[in-house]
Amino acid sequence: MVKRSRKESEGETEEVYEPSKATRLYIVWKKLKRSELAVFGLGIIIFAILMAALAPILAPYSPYYMDRSLRPPSMEHPFGTEAGGRDVLSMVMYGAQISLYVGFGAVALELAIGLTIGMIAGYFGGIIDEVLMRVTDVIITLPELPLLIVTVTFFETRSVHIMVLVMGIVGWPFICRVTRSEFLTLRESTYVEAARSIGASNRRIIFSHILPNLFSTLIVLATMDIPWYIFYEATLTFLGFGSSEYSWGVLLEKGYLLFIGPERPMYWWIVTFPGIALFLTSLGFNLFGDGLRDALDVTSSGR
Amino acid sequence: MTLRNYVIRRLILIIPTFFLISAIVFTLIHLAPGDPVMVMVSRHGLPQATQDRIREELGLNEPVPVQYAIWVGKLLRGDFGFSYVTGRNVLEWISNKVPATVELILIAEIISIIIAVTLGVIAAVKHYSLTDAVCSVTALVGYSAPSFWIAVIAILVFSMMLKWLPPSGMYTVGVIWGSPLDAFVDHLKHLIMPTSILVLGWTAYLFRMVRSSMLDVLNQDFIMTARAKGVKERVVIYKHALRNALLPVITYLGFSIGFLLGGAAVIENIFDWPGLGEFIVMVASNRDYPALMGITMIISLMVLIANLCADVTYAFVDPRIRYD
């Protein structure tokens, strides 16, 4: 204290290098760029987003347009047509919309639920924390896919939105646990104590002092979770719990069902192309997530 | 705390967990629109009097907490009720499905552990080498590929194009009347595809765990000390490092039962493997609530017990955990 006041009286101000938000983003980008795989992953993600966004312009046909059925790939239909005569390429492009919507939607929802519950448990502690964490512990041990299957049957109607909702309901505990443990640590930190001592409200402490510190961890976890939700949507649709008309899961299901029959002719194109799309998208998010984790220096592991 | 006390404490903790899970399952079912009788009506078309009688029999006129108490009481006595669709005893039905799934999961688990630990150690020891790069990229690819798609492609290639492996079932019809050896070989052929696909997904996951855990340990001071003392490199790796690196991996083995059960849900459906995964999809599609509640409870219990075993093993090999 004494030392500081002396400094001030001498008119000296301590210069602390504090990078601006833009600079910090640039630093992360520079670190990320060092990993070629991460950049490649980002490229795939951008490609998938563009494909989804520009499907109405770029796709050769509408996903509902029916031509002759079960045509192998040709100039007219580069990926062939499915049993209903719809163009597989167009369905794959439009399908990207559904997959990305589910991926981002489910992650947004799980973040919203997990953050809220984790914040309440971690910041207030006590009996609330105890009860919430026991519930979280239980849900986190249960296998996700069977849980999704069970939960999705409780809804009378089947739609993509319901699927996103179900994934949010099932997926939040991990985010919640991470949020809670970070809150528990940061709640006791000196700078939060300082903020409290000068009269900062709970809201201010939570939102301006603690939450920003969670950002990088949560971004990495969210990126790594997106491919899982895209998988789950395709898997649930494949198993017959979906309702969409042209998602990748639908194509895979339709193509697979053609295998079951006395003759089993080889309609390989119907299952191959949507599967590759699914695989590449997931690879993209995983590579980017790995790179992001290194760039942001996040130590907590994914699930 | 002794190991015995630790195990007892963990066993006691299972009880509240069981009630919590049963409460969650029960609540979910009761949030579902339409009551079970309506499900039966839509299936069999029952007169009003019969509907009322069934409601009475199932205790659906009681208040919800009472219904829950009755249901849990029956569960504890091993009475899982009867299927709405087939009328079969749920517990009996599920227990018929358990062996097929256990076979699939156990084989996949053992093969995955062997491959993942071997490759994980090699990749970590030869960090940044070509072997490491190849293994890591392969793992990432295996991790990113949807297993049900790989399964579909495998059927396309190995069953339909090459005709090497059967596409579905556990046995070829009629093979049990042939010689036992033929039946065994036939069964093995049916096993190859479903297990390999489960192995692919789980090995990729486990490999990443083993590798990063091993890397962490190899960077620690006691490894440097051992090397400085002149301990042989092989002893350093297998005795000093690997033992410690496998500790966190044990926790993941408990978790793996859940992961593999999830994978089995898809794989069993594709390969017509008559196990729990096929069962859960079937009863879920039929909205057969007693069977669905039963299978959810059974799967939860399996996962709980697997986690308990993993934790106890951990406590056994790493005494530090017991003083937590």
Structure, described:
The complex is a heterodimer of chains A (303) and B (324). Chain A starts with a helix and ends in a 7-residue tail after the last helix. Chain A is globular and about 75 Å long. Chain A has 303 residues and is mostly helical. Chain B has 324 residues and is mainly α. Chain B has twelve helices and no strands. The radius of gyration of chain B is 24 Å and the shape is globular. Chain B starts with a helix and ends in a 7-residue tail after the last helix. The mean pLDDT of chain B is 83. Chains A and B meet through helix 5, helix 6, helix 9, helix 10 and helix 11 of A and helix 1, helix 6, helix 7, helix 10 and helix 11 of B.
Please write out the topology.
The complex is a heterodimer of chains A (about 300) and B (about 325).
Chain A: H1 2-9, H2 21-34, H3 36-58, H4 88-124, H5 126-141, H6 144-153, H7 160-187, H8 190-197, H9 202-238, H10 248-257, H11 268-296
Helix pairs in contact in A: 2-11, 3-4, 3-11, 4-5, 4-7, 4-9, 4-11, 5-7, 6-7, 7-9, 8-9, 9-10, 9-11, 10-11
Chain B: H1 3-31, H2 36-44, H3 48-58, H4 64-76, H5 90-125, H6 130-144, H7 147-161, H8 180-218, H9 221-229, H10 233-270, H11 276-285, H12 289-317
Helix pairs in contact in B: 1-12, 5-6, 5-8, 5-10, 6-8, 7-8, 7-10, 8-10, 9-10, 10-11, 10-12, 11-12
Descriptors:
heterodimer; A: 303 residues; 0% strand; globular; disordered N terminus; B: 324 residues; mainly alpha; 12 helices
